[in-house]
C-alpha cells in the first residue's frame, strides 16, 4: 500500500502545504520544481523565482544553467540584480540646461565676433531673455549671463512702461530727465577736474630725471654755418630773421618771398654774390625807418633823408646816416625834439664803425660787421612810432576777434536752445495730432460701409491712387530739394566757420608774435631751448647766455643734509 499509485496521487495535498511552508519540505519542492521546469516556459520560471523571492526569507540558491536556459534566453534574475545595483550606486545628475540656453550658448560661441551676425544674435538674446527663468539665466556663463540679464531688464522696463498710465509715464519721464541731468552734471564735473589736473601737470616744472616714459632728445649738433661765419653769430641772424617775419605786416606787407635764415647767412658769407639779397634786407628795414615820424629829424646837406630815393645802391649810405647819433642830426640843422627818443641806442654802433661805412660798402664788410649793422637797424625800428602803432593795432584786432568769437558762440548756443524748444513744441503738437487722428480714424471706420465692387468704383479707386502717387512724388521731390538746399547751406556755413576760425587763429598768432618771444625752457645746465618759426626751422639750444658774473650753486634740502650727516 505504501508504494501504490493511489497514495502517490493523494500526496498532492501536502504539496500545497509545502508551498506555504517552504523550509519544512525542501526536497519535495525541489523535485516538483525540477519536473515542472521541462514543461513550463521561461515565464513560469520567472514567476516561480519571484514567488521564491517573496516567500523565502533567505537568498535563493544559485541554479545551474542548462542548455534549455541558453536556448530560451538569459535568466531573469541577473538583469534585475544589475538594474538594482546600478540604481543604487550611481549618483543623480544635475538639471540640464534649457534648450534655448543651449542654442544661445552654441550660437554665441560661433558668431560673437562676426559683424554680420550681430542682429540675429541680438534677437536670439531677446528670445532667451523672454523664455529663460531666473534660475536658468544664473546658470549661463558670466559674459552671456550679463547680456541676457541686461536684455531682460530692458524688456521688463518696456513692459512696465506699456502698463503705465499717461500720468505715471509723465512722472517717470521727469524722473529720468532729472537722473540724466544729474549724470551729465557729474560727467561734466569729472571732465573739468581731469582737464584742470592735466593743465596743472602740464604747467608744472619737471625734473628731467623724474620723467618716465618720455622720448629721449635727439643728439644735438652745431648749426651748419657757411664758411667764414662763426657759430656765435647764429643767434643774431635768427633774431633779425624772426624780427622780419613777426613784423612782416609792417615791414613788407606785399612781399611774397620771406627772408630765411639760410639765405641770409649765405648772403653774409658771400662778398659780391650776396649784394642783392643783403641790400634787399637793408631796403626793407630802411623804408620803414625813413617813413616814420622820427625820421623827420634825419637829414644831410639841408635835405631830409626821407626825400632821398631809396634803392639798393643808396641803401649803404642811408643806413650810415640813419645810425648816426642824435647830436649829429642836430648839427646837420635838421634836428627835432622827436629825435631825442632814440638817444638810448646811440651806443649800438661805434663811431669807428660809422667812419668805416663812409668809405666802404656794406657788402664789403666782414660778416660780423654786417650782422652788427642789421641788429642796430632792427633796434632803431623798434623805437619808432610805426612799431608802437602796429603792436596796438594787433592787440586791438585780437580783442575784437575774441569778442566776435564769444558772440558767435553765444549765438550758436541760443540757436540750439531755440531749436530744442521748438522741437519739444513740435513733438507735443504731433502727439496731440496723433491722438486726435486716432479718434477720427476710429469714427470713420465705424461709418464706412463696404461698397460694391463695380466698374465705376474701380475707376474711382484708380484715379484716387494716381492722385495719391502724384502727391507722394511731389512730396518726395520737395523733400529732396529741401534736403539738398539744407546740405548746401550746411556746407556754406561750414566753409564760413572754417574761414572765421582761420582768421581768428591768424589774428591771435600775429598778436602773439609782435610781443616778446620767449624760450621753451631751460635745463639743469641753464641752456635755453628755442623753437622759432618756419623761416628758422629746427629746435635750437643756446649755451653760454648766462653772464660769467652770475654764479649758480645748488643748496641741498634739509632732509638730504640729515641723511648725509647720518651716513
UniProtKB/TrEMBL annotation:
Keywords: Nucleus. GO terms for cellular component: WICH complex. One of its GO terms (biological process) is DNA damage response. It is found in: Nucleus. SMART domains: DDT. Residues 31-40, 185-208, 413-450, 469-488 have a biased composition (Basic and acidic residues). The keyword Nucleus applies. It comes from Nothobranchius korthausae. Residues 231-295 form the DDT domain. This is Bromodomain adjacent to zinc finger domain, 1B. InterPro entries: BAZ1B, DDT_dom, WHIM1_dom, WHIM2_dom. PANTHER family: TYROSINE-PROTEIN KINASE BAZ1B.
